[in-house]
Amino acid sequence: YLVNNPGHSISISHAGKYALAGVCSNAHTRIGLDIERIRVQGFDHVMKVAFTDREIQAAGDRPEEACRIWTRKEAYLKFVKTGFRESLKRVDVSGATIMHGGVPVADLNTITLSVRQQHLISIVYNQVKRACTQRGTSVSERIATGLPAAKTRR
Questions:
Q1: 101: exposed, middle or buried (Cβ count in 10 Å: 0-12, 13-18, 19+)
Q2: Residue 70 belongs to what H/E stretch?
Q3: Between helices 63-79 and 43-50, what is the axis angle to 10°?
Q4: What is the value of pTM for the model shown?
């Protein structure tokens, strides 16, 4: 949280040369996000330790799907503010609805975006998405095409 704005939700992630941050200024909205490089190899151990049987089956031998599941799981754990203190096998993000402890989690929105077909970003948030545009291009469209989500001022 932000010291002077404890009602704001913040989530930060990085992978390689990319960094990602999300801030919600509405006290009733929370956000969790994650970015990961899509790896052809290296998810076997993560899947064994962190994935449910259903997630392992959903990922199969597809690295992009394994990465999608992992980024959704990590974004959700940031959203609920437990991080890796929660048992990773209690959370299943393989379906349209996130399951936590075998119970469907209601009223969540999830987005997964590809960045130049090399990285995946997953975002989990709890309020109806409001259109967030910059000069006619949505933030998700800008991220997916590799453009910055927002311009910085100098």
A1: exposed
A2: helix 63-79
A3: 50
A4: 0.78
Query: Tokens representing 56?
Result: 């392992």
Measure the CA–CA gap between 149 and 1, rounded to whole angstroms. 22
Instruction: List pLDDT tens digits, range 63-105.
Output: 999 999 999 999 999 999 887 777 899 999 999 999 999 999 9
Q: What amino acid is encoded at 124 in this protein?
A: V
d(CA 147, CA 116): 10
If one counts every other C-beta atom within 10 angstroms of the C-beta of residue 31, the result is 21
Cβ neighbours around 68 below 10 Å, total: 21
**Position 9: which residue type?**
S
CA dist 100 and 87 (Å) reads 10
